[in-house]
Fold this sequence. Notes:
This protein is an alpha+beta fold.
Amino acid sequence: MNMKPESGGAIRKGQKITQSFQKWLLVVVVIAFLFTVFALWSIQTNLSKQSAMDLLELNISDVRQDVIDASDENLLALTGEVAAVVNDAPEVDSAYLGELLNKFDVSEINVIDENGIIIATTHEDFLGYNMADGEQSAEFLRILNGLNTYVQSYQPTSHDANLSRKYAGVALNDGGFVQVGYDSERFQRDIASQVIGVTRNRHVGEGGCVIIADESGNIVSDQQENEGQPLPVTGLDLDLITHSGDDIFEATVYGEPCYCKVVKAEGYYITAVMPASETVVSRNVSIGITTAVEVIVFLALFAVIYVLVRRLVVDNIRKVNGALSQIADGDLDVVVDVRSHEEFSSLSDDINSTVDTLKRYITDAETRIDAELQFANAIQHSALPSVFPPYPHRKEFDIWATMHTAKEVGGDFYDFYFVDEEVLAFLIADVSGKGIPAAMFMMTSKTLLKSYAESHMTVEEVLTQANNKLCEGNDADMFVTVWMGYLNTRTGMVSFANAGHGHPIVKRANGECDYASFRSGLVLAGMEGIRYRRGELQLNPGDVLYLYTDGVTEATNSDNAMYSEARLLETLKNMDSDPEAICTSVVDDVQAFVGDAPQFDDITMLCLKYNGGPS
């Protein structure tokens, strides 16, 4: 019997995995090659355009800055001359400034005293004006804080939006400063040569240029030496430039399609121009080279991948990767067991050994960190006064304070100490952030404040000096809010200063209870050179002053509701005047309000009761 199957009915064998993989790999490689070429074309086109845009941005930024620098230097020099004349003048009034206005050919001259008030001016409506009352004029008050000169950019004036003017100020010898303003026509005349110089020989790319026009649309400078000609001779027009804003736009300039970018500075329209043809040159070269390289790379990848797959390494790699994925997800009890080849056996053993070592290191690190944090917590709390009553022999006042940190260490702190026989300094503060960095910043702040206070500075001077010192080298951009007061134990008068902290609560002996509001200054380490103001608060016998951090009022329960200032005030209204009882009751009330919700912020408070001066 012939058992051989007939043609057409033969049993079809499946393809070898290598043949199937070879065919589909070839298809994938070809598709990938075509896709990468297309993607590369798109990317390179966008990159070329972006490169052109960046080049336009760079050139126009350089020219704009050069024009601004020239204008600033010119006006500052002119203002310096006016200031020199004013310094030498025996008496300066508005009539005398009018003479200087004509002499120096400027548009406006103002003399401002050390309090920021205009005491002489060529604009009679400005006489007696307080410079601090206007956003534009207030910028010049920095001259009263140690800056010798200041100049503003050319811009619409605050008193007349239709009038644009440029102002500069120079400090006077006897305090105050002179402010001089002039219009675009004058300063453009002064700096015309510098403007032409910065653009005449500047090239944007190979064939691009910079064109500068004035507000009337007349060319001030370009490479074609068309100074004085109307802007349309270049192919641009003022309406197109005015409505382009900061966007890159396309226009035909000197008969060639170009990419353009325009900015307005000091009364000029500065336009950077680059031929569009230049943007595709680098793209075409890059595409050609990259395509040739990709052909070679894809062929090499095809061969390498094909050989690797034939050797059946993928399955074992997948097994190892599966185990590693479980380990990466946190399951450190997984054991890798791939033993088909010596290399995989060695890899399995190494991974298992590494995981065992990692588990041991994690356990050791957790133990060490816990111990170190507990030690840091003990150090931090030991730095704060913790013995109450702290001055049993002083009957003029009672004081109590407490701090509950959200983490092992925190950023809140309080302090109190005598700076002389009659004056008790006391404060509460809250450092930005939590944990070790906040604790380190807290220790620095606490030490500085105490050092300055004990050197017999006033309370506002303490905050001013501490702020300047904390700003030095503050690379972490941390800050601290502080409310600090000096209690005169004989009179009950509290002199205080506030650096961005919440207002304290005053509970009077007659039962009245409310927040003691006072204008707050900027936080410490927020900005160097800040000066803080002093406030005064009279405490009568039986009055209580309660200080706290935002960890009290912003404590949040599981419903995301905050404890709030209103609830804190109501809680204090219903308490007696014992500082320890007040602090304990507030803490209990906050914890009852929060319930099982985690504590996210440090809870710190200080309570001072004034009993009256010594009899």
